[in-house]
Amino acid sequence: MPAVTEAAPAKLNLALHVTGRRADGYHLLDSLVAFAGVGDVVTLEPGPLSLRIEGPFAAGLSCDDNLCLRAARLAGADAAITLTKNLPVASGIGGGSADAAAVLRGLSRMGHPLPARAERLGADVPVCLASNPARMQGAGEILTPLPPLPAIPLVLVNPGVAVPTPRVFAAMDRRDNPALPPIPRFAGPADLTAWLAGTRNDLEPAALTIAPVIGQVLDALRATGAAFARMSGSGATCFGFYDSPDRARIAAAALKQHGWWAVSRELAPLPAPR
Ligand SMILES: C[C@](O)(CO)[C@H](O)COP(=O)(O)OP(=O)(O)OC[C@H]1O[C@@H](n2ccc(N)nc2=O)[C@H](O)[C@@H]1O
Ligand SMILES: Nc1ncnc2c1ncn2[C@@H]1O[C@H](COP(=O)(O)OP(=O)(O)OP(=O)(O)O)[C@@H](O)[C@H]1O
Question: Where, in this chain's numbering, is ATP bound (predicted)?
Fold first, then answer.
């Protein structure tokens, strides 16, 4: 059987409202989730279970207890896995969840059924399995697929500070915030931006107390002409929308001058490459 390659695109919480807390401590979310045309890549080959990690962010990760191996174990399958780690680790764009979901998709192409309760690997794994725009509720397991979003030029920026998700949830002041307003069908970028202006990322204030540099990243995105800027997930990665791909490219180059990771891409790209 030939090797199977799966893209693991970065997840973006365009809006993320925290609406309550379950008895087990997990938070209730209401989030508009989208995916960007940048991500990790997972390759699976037949063989005993193993993991090799390469790519620009490989050094930040251990092969022990990696989500790729946990995903294969949950599926009860063996494979020689290679992970190309292009996304910063612990950065709010779902890297580990996207990798786990990519392993599960790859294994299913190799004949191993998707396991039940993939959310046990991480709250973001269910939404990353489809890697399509969705409204995400519950603790992450209730998904409503959405039509494609407008293809907006965007920049992702990460200042190189790992922000552990549990610390951000623990630092929140208010956990009973209002749900998202109804999600309309967005005719174009201006519609989506206007709708987002009436929403929030409820984790942003808490993440700012842990990593104040996030405030500098948001200011810098706006200073480079972003029409809209927000943090994704529990941070520290932030995204900005731009009027044209050229403006996004120029902004990404300027943001890299701070020593930050920055890429210009499009929201809602064509289906993830294989
Ligand atoms: C913040 C988000 O990225 C938004 O998409 C996700 O909710 C987090 O997804 P994730 O990193 O896959 O999360 P997990 O690995 O399942 O959980 C990490 C930690 O985040 C907290 N957590 C996560 C999800 C959730 N709905 N409520 C929580 O309180 C818990 O402390 C948990 O121990
Ligand atoms: N393949 C993986 N990629 C990234 N992190 C992994 C992986 N496997 C295990 N981890 C661990 O999971 C932790 C969370 O990493 P991840 O990059 O998924 O966070 P995140 O981007 O904040 O995700 P989210 O947006 O889902 O909260 C890291 O601290 C890391 O040690």
Answer: 88-98
